[in-house]
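Intended use. Records such as the Polyketide cyclase / dehydrase and lipid transport family protein entry shown here are meant for training and evaluating sequence-to-structure methods. They are not intended to support clinical decisions.
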Amino acid sequence: MFKIILLVIVAVLVVFAIVVALQPSHFRIARSIVIDAPPAAAFAQVEDFRRWTAWSPFEKLDPNLQRSYPGLAVGEGAIYDWVGDKNAGEGRATILESRAGDRVRIELAFRKPFQATNFAEFVFKPVGDKTEVTWSMSGERNFMFKAVGLFMSMDKMLGAQFEDGLKQLKTIAESQPRG
């Protein structure tokens, strides 16, 4: 009887490992919003990490978050380091590409609570006299994240945070004087 139970457990684990291994390695999460402002208004909020405290939901995860901005203030090469509690973690964001009013591409190097490198991108698309802003994040999922993904939807979890951040970004960008 013990052997049968052991064989069943091993079989279940093997099937689980196969199912996990067959999950896609690449992920992409994206949300968009239309802002009643020109692309430059939203772009200015994104390309300057110091402005993220006003709209990014991730800035609110730890009220004692430690921030530093070594190097350039804005644009390509700008860096934002953070150290926080278990909710905010620790990492570095670096702007890899910044094209005025068009896009900002960021490398996110997470150190805690897990190590990972992902990429965030903000795309600003004129829609008449308004702007559609799309915030996305993409990267590779290792075996552990594939397994967790079977039980928790990263798209739903992070997507909701992206939506909240975009709503805050919209409020700020729409309050800027049009120039």
